[in-house]
Amino acid sequence: MAATVRRTSCNLCEAICGVLVTVEDGRVTDIRGDESDPLSHGHICPKAVALKDLQEDPDRLTTPVRRTADGWEPLGWDEAIEYVASRLGEIQQQHGKNAVAVYLGNPNVHSLGALTHGPALVRLFRTRNRFSATSVDQLPHMLASHLLYGHQLMVPVADIDRTSYLLMLGANPLASNGSMMTAPGFGRRLKELRNRGGKVVVIDPRRTETAAVADEHHFVRPGTDAAFLLALIHQVIADGRAAPAQYVDGLEAVTEAVAEWTPERAAEVTGIDAETIRRIAAEFAAADRAACYGRNGVSTQQFGAICQWAVQVLNIITGNLDRPGGAMIPRPAVETLRFLGRGHIGVWQSRVRGLPEFGGELPASAMAEEILTPGDGQIHAMLTIAGNPVLSTPNGRKLDEALGTLDFMVSVDPYINETTRHADVILPPTPPLERDHYDVIFHQLAVRNTARWNDAVLRRPADSRHDWEIFRDLGLAVLRRTPLSRRKLTMSARLRLSPKRLVDLGLRSGPYRLSVGKLRRSPGGVDLGPLQPALPQALHTKDKRIDLAQQMILDDLPRLRESLVVLGNGDDLLLIGRRHLRNNNSWMHNSARLVKGKPRHQLLMNPEDLACRQLVDGQLVEITSAAGSVSVEVASSNDMMPGVVSLPHGFGHGRPGVRLTVANKVAGASANDVTDPDLIDAAAGTAALNGVPVKVTAVS
Ligand SMILES: Nc1nc2c(c(=O)[nH]1)N[C@H]1C(S)=C(S)[C@@H](COP(=O)(O)OP(=O)(O)OC[C@H]3O[C@@H](n4cnc5c(=O)[nH]c(N)nc54)[C@H](O)[C@@H]3O)O[C@H]1N2
Ligand SMILES: Nc1nc2c(c(=O)[nH]1)N[C@H]1C(S)=C(S)[C@@H](COP(=O)(O)OP(=O)(O)OC[C@H]3O[C@@H](n4cnc5c(=O)[nH]c(N)nc54)[C@H](O)[C@@H]3O)O[C@H]1N2
Ligand code: SF4
Ligand SMILES: [Mo]
């Protein structure tokens, strides 16, 4: 049979690179970048080829399985779905709606079918015990957008292709390929920015791959960025350079709130000297097009909400919001904002610790205690969809134990891993190359407006289900157990609409009046042009104005002032995380192609910190926090700020029953065995995965 070349986009990270897949005899023989993609222009990273590995992985489940005393047993789809629906139904009947909890993991946002049908299924359970990766990730971005712009997903992106000054905090796009900012080929874009005479400044406790290609890099003490950002705002105002648009209110209150955050005061806690802070403020305000961008390192930390608010305020008061080359709001072909709620916070609280919900979800840090603490509303059953929270959320060990105590657990997931090994039933969806793709989320965060529909590259096996079909069938099975009502009829009809039909409706009613048919005629994607100014009309606030003086953030500032005293002076080391280009969160260690090469699981530590503890490079050390401890090799690194150590998350495979043949051989420990569920950003309950106080000692 002749080879055919088919197109799709890689859905493994937020860059959504266009790829060309060569197929011979139903098998993938080549994967490369698609030059015709108007966003990625042929860029790919080493993970693209892993799409083939996922397809061919012998460990990947292709039928539902049930856990029995003698191991995992295959199960027919209909039987599996009926069994799951009836067990979940029984548990809700016995213990109430909240007894069933849901965790939605990261790949949900990368799968079309999960996005179109996952939320519809989850709603049917009517449980308040909903959790997701949001609270170990981008929650502060969404909170800032909800507060300032009236919609949790109206997140401005740095207009990297036109800016002349990019200030980046806590982001390492050269490894992560960019996040909350879809900009495939980030490295090339940075190079072009600098070739235009622009400047890139990186603030990070580690001299990262991104810092290495920037004009300037400054170490910052983990968890103190809020002080740095408030000092920039202070200085911009003090220099008389604050000139927000006429639709912006609250500058006075902000001026008052940042009065104490002089560059000198911020220097004490951040480790960045006052002169540098003053200079960066002046350069940022003077640049004709500047953008400040902060990502994971300034989200998943104790002051993530203040940081993300301050990033916006800095862009706003310097006139860079909504201006080409500043921070702009994408306008995708399917207007994701229209289909998603505007967001809310604190409408209810978690049962045990009283942590606030955000957008209908409780913080993942509360999951284990909600399972383990008896009483009304206790979690007795769990549905996990595309998530491995045992490796991804704070104190994974405790969650690991907690999952073992559930009455029932079901996972929609292709693998038996650290989390799903606790499931009674696993329902595996088709892999990416067997699914249609349109990116509903990441066009909303992209640095250029483009659109791309691709049909599935490979035909799926007869007895398989797409993720949306699993949600549809499970949803219908749940609905069959409820009395006839209008809601039941609407929900059933909604679940039966295919993702393709829903995208088509979204495209037709969107701003460019496209359709799936039109996009199919340009399988390499269509270009809808650079980002355009859209404010204030596009704001979702009631009065179409932006109020900088958000009370919930201002109320949090005293906590910052008080904690920084401790953060700045503690003699513990502060643990931060990191990512590597060839890893993907907790789940792609099973690709032999990706995990080969130099080990990259070690704890990175500055040589001074090693020496004063009489430790040596390569030695096995124990990392201990208030939550737990792990052992791992330490690697000496001059790229680490003294006093800070870095451990990547997503490692720590090889637990009993985990069926990940390659991953189980990868060394390393789970960073989340030491991260602490009690260490959160109090404002919204985001986990502080960075800036965890730890002690590092020799393993005796
Ligand atoms: N210490 C520390 N912890 C962190 C982070 C950190 O920086 N430091 N980062 C956090 C961040 S940003 C995130 S997003 C989370 C991610 O953590 P999780 O939400 O747990 O997501 P993943 O680790 O990506 O796990 C993906 C799971 O989905 C399954 N899967 C893959 N593709 C599909 C699919 O198409 N359908 C279905 N149904 N399942 C699929 C995989 O088998 C795996 O079980 O981790 C967080 N945890
Ligand atoms: N190859 C690869 N790509 C990925 C992923 C992956 O696992 N592997 N995961 C994807 C996901 S789910 C996400 S959310 C994105 C994340 O995308 P990024 O946020 O760009 O990736 P990280 O590597 O987590 O970068 C966080 C940076 O913050 C720094 N940092 C830690 N603490 C602090 C602090 O207190 N202050 C400051 N200023 N910096 C700090 C760390 O040193 C690190 O360099 O990446 C996505 N892309
Ligand atoms: S950067 Fe790599 S993983 Fe991300 S979409 Fe592109 S090819 Fe896929
Ligand atoms: Mo993430």
TrEMBL record:
SUPFAM superfamilies: ADC-like, Formate dehydrogenase/DMSO reductase, domains 1-3. The keyword Isomerase does not apply. GO terms for cellular component: membrane. Gene3D superfamilies: 2.40.40.20, 3.40.50.740, ADC-like domains, Dimethylsulfoxide Reductase, domain 2. GO terms for molecular function: 4 iron, 4 sulfur cluster binding; metal ion binding; molybdopterin cofactor binding; oxidoreductase activity. Signal peptide: none annotated. Keywords: 4Fe-4S, Iron, Iron-sulfur, Metal-binding, Oxidoreductase. It comes from the Bacteria. InterPro entries: Asp_de-COase-like_dom_sf (IPR009010), MoPterin_dinucl-bd_dom (IPR006657), Mopterin_OxRdtase (IPR006656), Mopterin_OxRdtase_4Fe-4S_dom (IPR006963), Prok_molybdopt-oxidoreductase (IPR050123). Residues 3-59 form the 4Fe-4S Mo/W bis-MGD-type domain. This is Anaerobic selenocysteine-containing dehydrogenase. Pfam families: Molybdop_Fe4S4 (PF04879), Molybdopterin (PF00384), Molydop_binding (PF01568). It comes from Kribbella caucasensis.
